[in-house]
Amino acid sequence: MNKQTVLITGASKGIGKAIADLVREQNIYDLLTPSHHDLDLSSRESIKNYCAQHPTIDILINNAGINILGAVDSISDDDMDTMLGTNLMGPIALIREVVPSMKAAGSGRIVNISSIWGIRSKENRTLYSATKFALNGVTKALSRELGEHNILVNSLCPGYVNTELTQKNVPPEEQQKIKATIPLGRFAEPNEIAKTVAFLISSDNTYITGQTIIIDGGFLA
Q1: Which of 10, 106, 175, 211 is most deeply packed, by most CB within 10 A?
Q2: Which of 29, 128, 160, 207 is an active site residue?
Q3: Residue 198: which of 28, 23, 60 has the closest Cα?
Q4: Looking at the 3D structure of the chain, how many domains does it have?
Q5: pTM of the entire predicted model
Q6: Residue 194: which residues within 8 A CB-CB, separation 6 or more?
Q7: Do the domain assignments include residue 220?
Q8: Residue 75: which domain range?
Q9: What confidence category does residue 1 fall into, taking pLDDT thresholds of 50, 70 and 90?
Q10: 201: CATH
């Protein structure tokens, strides 16, 4: 039996790396983890060229994303173009390229890595929340559009995750304050997010689609 091909964007670190490591360990998939040089999500030409080289992608995990924080009156045109291009338009363009082969196969899985800031928001996250709320909307629309082809589409919305970026951007004292607001009292580990993704893309998932699945230790509760 041929292995299904999984494409994961942003797999060099953090949640993306944890997903890629777990998928690789299962040894039941062919794994594609392009670098930014291989696949530039801000470039439609790059997306088209990459997908032309890999015409059959059975499972797509849109993980790559950036978060430029700032007050709304400090947002530059470059910030808007970069955030919208990488976090929203890039994933949509990538989905557009891979869906035909999924339709032809009569099955497929798409997982969009969103955020709790696509469920609620806070100050200085105008652009980030705009892209993540929109990505959740894309998930819902596509689940309706692609269900007849047995293509299941879901969003995963992690809360605070113990990644290198979190350790770099959130001072230790601030981390403790945040953990005090999380019922489980800690940040998620990247592998905990990866395990949920692994289920959503597996043959065990036969009926979950159109969902925004929150993994936040109870933070939003």
Answers
A1: 10
A2: 128
A3: 23
A4: 1
A5: 0.96
A6: 15, 18, 19, 21, 22
A7: no
A8: 4-215
A9: low
A10: 3.40.50.720
